[in-house]
Specification:
The structure is a single chain. Helix content is about 55%, strand content about 10%. By secondary structure, it is mainly α. The chain has a 3-stranded antiparallel β-sheet. Strands 4-6-5 form a 3-stranded antiparallel β-sheet. A hairpin with a 4-residue loop joins strand 2 and strand 3. The chain is globular. The C terminus is likely disordered.
């Protein structure tokens, strides 16, 4: 389980009870946390705990010339995902008529969303816009099919899990909470030295 946990952390996974129950349970033991932390320190990384979501992920100890290329790639990926994810989150809040954002362990029954979209032209137009951009781009025309596609894509990307493939109940993982943390980071205008094109991308993400 040690190797499996470390591999997931190094590939950018967010380990929470919903997304990776076995790895999460492994990291709950202090001895295991220590072993993982010691290993990551040899790679100039550390095990970081996200208290608000009860989750673990891997971060760099510091920013330097050795990891700048990796951070550049990370910010490029963030730029590609932030806008669509924020649009999705706003869309779901509107459709479900709630002020509670999606967090780790939130449960969404997609069947309960079909009716609002079928009866609200504005929601359908917003969904159509969302499914015209990556990573949610699809040629599907019906709102029901578009919603299913978006949720399947988010499941594929690790933001949701289901207990079985045919279930309509989606369980949110801590990856949503990490997105909120990154938005907060960008809003606080903290800076790291990255190539100019990436800094421009960072500016575009400020809300």
């Amino acid at each position: 389980m040690f190797k499996q946990t470390v591999q997931k952390l190094l590939t950018g996974e967010v380990i929470c009870e919903t997304g990776f129950a076995d790895e999460f349970l492994f990291l709950q033991a202090q001895d295991n946390q220590g072993r993982v932390s010691d290993f990551l320190s040899n790679l100039d990384r550390q095990l970081t705990y996200l208290d608000s979501a009860d989750a673990y992920y891997c971060t760099f100890n510091e920013v330097d010339s050795d990891n700048t290329p990796e951070l550049t790639a990370l910010f490029t990926d963030i730029r590609g995902m932030f806008r669509p994810l924020v649009e999705f989150l706003e869309l779901i809040l509107t459709a479900s008529q709630t002020d509670l954002p999606i967090h780790a362990k939130s449960i969404i029954n997609i069947n309960e969303l079909f009716d609002p979209f079928e009866h609200d032209q504005t929601l359908r137009e917003q969904l159509r816009h969302l499914t015209a951009i990556r990573p949610f781009k699809t040629n599907k025309l019906e709102s029901r099919e578009q919603l299913v596609f978006v949720f399947h894509k988010l499941e594929e990307l690790g933001y949701f899990v289901r207990k079985n493939a045919g279930s309509s109940r989606y369980f949110a993982t801590a990856k949503f909470d990490l997105i909120y943390l990154l938005i907060e980071f960008l809003n606080d205008s903290e800076r790291i030295e990255l190539p100019e094109t990436v800094e421009q991308q960072q500016e575009e993400l400020l809300f």
